[in-house]
Every structure is written in structure tokens, then in C-alpha cells.
Amino acid sequence: MTAEHERLLDGHRRMLDMHPSSAVAMEGDAGRLVQIVTDRDEISDLSRSLISTARRDWMTLDNYVLEASVDEFITVSPLPSFEGEVRCRAIYETRCAEHPVGVKTIEAAVEAGEEARLLPRIGMKMQIVDEAIALLPLTPTGLSGALLVRSSVIVEALREYFEFLWERAIPFGAAQPDSPLSPLQQKILSMMAEGLSDESIARRADVSLSTVRRHSAVIREKLGFESRFAAGVAAARRGWLG
Question: Which one, of 200, 218, 196, 217, lies nearest residue 209 by Cα?
Fold first, then answer.
């Protein structure tokens, strides 16, 4: 039996010992490399338990897709004390850091030792433990369906995907890059932030209404928000309004 497989089995045993409720997702399935989990409680237990099995790396993606709006700070479980032996890294969609609850959650994790970075867009949530296990969502929030992967080939591919995103992400708290908008889009954004209608913006910018609406859609897409108000707030926080 290889050291890698020994560590994987040990991690499974420790997770079952610490969280008996996750046994349904693990018992009798040691030979299954990919498993679908649909019970919400099991998914929640797995999500909380997996980090305790990490020995070298704990990696997560969070796109802040939630089933309900969050209006107040939610207490999250602190990172385990790894004594520097496990590197914890997380990539969050930028809007996580633009929500009062999201930014407090990230700050708490960073204070506990997590390395956090931001990207404008993240396609899905993901959790990876070492080279051993990955938990992927089957739904936008991942709470009503998830994929538990123990295949080393798939987990390694997911790790490479994470590293690809990590290299392109911005460290949490670092200065934001210059606005990626064109001069006209920058001008339209500034007028959007003033609360002007598309018609008023078109007249002031001396362009057609269709041009304003087309660029407005591009601006909101780059900011990751459909609402004009939310886009304006996000642009201000990123320093795009000058």
C-alpha cells in the first residue's frame, strides 16, 4: 500500500471519527472514485469535515452564490490549527469582498491563516484536500447536489485548474488594477454612478441610446452585477470611478 493511499484512508477514518453523520457518504464506498451526494445535511457535513483531513494543502473556490440573501454576519467555523503544516488558500469572486458579510468572512479566514485572492468571475465552488479528495457542486449553491471525487487523476486536474486561477487572482487587500474599461465606457460608468438615465447619458455623451445600453451591459458584465446601483457601488470600491 502506497504512502499516498495510506494517508487517504487515514484521512477518511479521522473524518468519520470526528463527524459520524458523514458516514453515509463514506462507508461502504471506499472503492468508489466518484460519488454523488444529494442529502443537504450530508453535503454540509462533508464541506465542514474535509478540511480536518488536510495534511499539506486546503484549496477552495467561492463564487458567493447563495440560496438566500445574507443581511448580517454569519459566524463561520474557524480554520483548524495546522501549526504551519497545511497551506490554506482560497479564491473568492470579487463580489464576496464587496458585500459587508462577505468581506468580514474573508477577513476572519485571513486572520486565521488563510491566503485569500480575488477574481472577477469564478465558475463554481470547489474544495480540494491535498491530492486526495475534491468536493464539487452539482447545483449553483452546491447544497442540493455535490460530487465527492477521490480519483487522483481528476483531483490533480482540479488542482491544476486552481493553480491556473491562483496565478491570475489578486491578493485580498491589494490595490485593484486600473479600470479595464474604454474611455467611453469610463465616461458612461461615471454618469451611471450619478444616477442618470440611459437617455440622459446618451445626450450628454453625444452617442446613440443603443450605444449607451450596449456599453452599460458590458460594464455590468465586467463588474459582475446586473443592478446599476450595485455596479456603481462595486466600481467605486474598485477605484474605477477615479
Answer: 200
Which strand (E) or helix (H) includes residue 227?
none
Whether 141 and 67 have beta carbons less than 8 Å apart is answered as yes
This prediction has a pTM of: 0.59
Q: Which ranges in the chain belong to alpha helices (H)? A: 3-18, 23-26, 40-49, 100-111, 152-168, 183-193, 198-205, 209-223, 228-237
C-alpha span between 17 and 51 (Å, rounded): 14
Longest dimension (CA), the chain: 73
Q: Would the pLDDT of 49 be above 50?
A: yes
Q: What is the pLDDT of residues 175-213, one digit of tens each?
A: 555 667 888 988 888 888 888 899 999 999 999 999 999
Q: Which three cell numbers stand for residue 99?
A: 458585500
As a dihedral over the C-alpha atoms of residue 112, residue 175, residue 94, residue 160, rounded to 10 degrees, the angle is -70
Residue 102, SS3 per DSSP:
helix
| H or E element that contains 75 | none
Q: Residue 153 carries which DSSP code? A: H
The number of CA neighbours under 13 Å toward the Cβ of 105 is 22
Mean pLDDT of the chain: 77
Integer-rounded Cα Rg, in Å, for the chain is 21
